[in-house]
Specification:
The chain is about 35% helix and about 5% strand. It is mainly α. A two-stranded antiparallel sheet has the order 1-2. Helix 4 packs across helix 6, helix 5 crosses helix 7 and helix 6 packs across helix 7.
């Protein structure tokens, strides 16, 4: 900005601009020496000081400011659509987040010629050795956390031992009782090796397949100090477990209907879910 003493462009002569003619007297009064910066009288033919100030302000642009701008509607629509698609994708592809989602027996595999074949059936091991091999892996993955790899359980945490338990190889042991314990779980007091335990054993009927339950039971019956099937065919196979499911009928293997020790003791030790073998049919001798 120029000082008041700087030379100013002359005003137009009187009579050439009606507005300036009207305000010339007021402009001269406002440009009085008392209104100047250094007290010296301004030149008569220079523009007024206020006019020069207004000219400087008029040349300036508005100061920028940082304000809140609303999100465009189309952006909200795009993100809303992506969120809806993501929810649908997770909901339809998560399989309810079940831990057994990949434990399927209905997967189809190509045969040698490349054509799809029917789903392979579950294995049905019939020897103690075959069942022990499968049972060792399942026991280590599922049961060893509570009952320990040595079968000693955790008495301090109310978990009974399996090694030497009368429910495994003693006077309370039977295939029908053992199948129901693993299928549906066990709840309530139970006496093992002279000590009473009162806890809940989780069910495995909706997690393990029938042959896997048979394998785990066979492993427990013949490991550590137990030798229930030594020198004999296995007492529990997939057919034994399947028959126990059938006999129980509407009982749900999801943990909501566990068995109790008192209920198991109602089953005689010689009770079998598979029943005695069917008698051979008699042939008609008249034919």
């Amino acid at each position: 900005m120029s000082t008041p003493n700087a030379p100013q462009p002359p005003l137009p002569p009187e009579g050439t601009e009606s507005v300036l003619d009207i305000h010339r007297q007021h402009m001269a009064e406002m440009n009085d020496a008392s209104l100047t910066f250094d007290g010296t009288p301004p030149e008569d033919d220079g523009p007024d000081t206020i006019g020069r100030l207004l000219d400087v302000i008029a040349r300036e642009h508005a100061e920028p400011r940082d304000g809140f701008e609303p999100v465009p509607f189309w952006v909200a629509c795009v993100f809303g659509g992506l969120l809806a698609w993501g929810g649908y994708y997770v909901g339809t592809g998560s399989a309810d987040f079940r831990r057994d989602v990949f434990d399927r027996s209905d997967l189809r595999t190509p045969d040698g010629g490349g054509a799809a074949v029917a789903s392979a059936p579950d294995p049905d091991p019939q020897t103690v050795e075959e069942l022990m091999k499968i049972g060792a892996a399942k026991y280590g993955a599922v049961c060893a956390t509570c009952h320990q790899p040595t079968g000693q359980g955790k008495p301090a945490e109310n978990i009974p031992p399996l090694d030497g338990s009368e429910w495994v190889v003693g006077d309370q042991a039977s295939a029908a009782r053992q199948c129901r314990i693993v299928l549906y779980g066990l709840s309530g007091p139970v006496t093992v090796k002279g000590r009473t335990y009162n806890a809940v054993m989780p069910n495995q009927g909706n997690v393990m397949k029938d042959y896997e339950i048979a394998a785990v039971l066979t492993y427990v019956r013949n490991s550590w100090g137990n030798a229930a099937d030594k020198g004999k065919p296995p007492a529990i196979t997939a057919a034994t477990v399947r028959a126990a499911r059938t006999k129980e009928g509407a009982r749900k293997p999801n943990g909501t209907q566990p068995v109790s020790a008192a209920e198991l003791q109602k089953l005689p030790l010689d009770y079998s879910d598979t029943g005695p073998p069917a008698a051979p049919e008699k042939k008609d001798e008249k034919k």
